[in-house]
Amino acid sequence: MINLEPALESLTVNKVEFVIVGGVAITAHGSAYLTEDLDFCYSRSKINLKNIVSALSIYKPRPRGFPENLPYIFDATTLQNGTNFTFRTTIGDIDLLGEVAGIGIYNDAVEQSELKSIFGYEVKILSVEGLIKAKRAAGRTKDLLVLPELEALREISTDKED
Q: Which residues of the chain fall short of a pLDDT of 50?
C-alpha cells in the first residue's frame, strides 16, 4: 500500500512536473476504487529527471521483480534510458510513466488534467474523461472493470454543470 502523503510532499517540494494518472486519480474524483500504488506521468526534461531522482531517492526505488542481489543505480541517466518504470520503494510501489496509453506523453496528460488538493498539496490529476480514455486503451481486466464507475462519475459531473 502506498504511503501517499510523503510521496506527494517530496514530489512537490522537489518541483517535479507530474500528473497523477492511476488509482489515486480515480479516488481523487470520488471513486471508492482502492489502489496500492502511485502512478504518474512525468515530464522527460533533463531537469525534471534530476528532480525525480532528488524526490524519490530517499525512498530507495528498485524495479519491481529486479533480483535483490544485483546492483541498481537510480539516477537521471537511468531514467533517460527508459520511459516507463515500476518501482518498489520504502513507502510503497510507484510507477513512472513517460507515456500513457490513450493519452500520450506528459504534455498531453497536462492538457487532460485538473488541479486537486491532496493532503494539502496542489497536484495535477488526470480528468475523469482522460482516465476513461487511458483505461480503455490499457484494456486490462482491472482497467475495464473500473470503467462503469468512471462513466458514472462523468455523468454526475455533467449533471452538476447543467
A: none
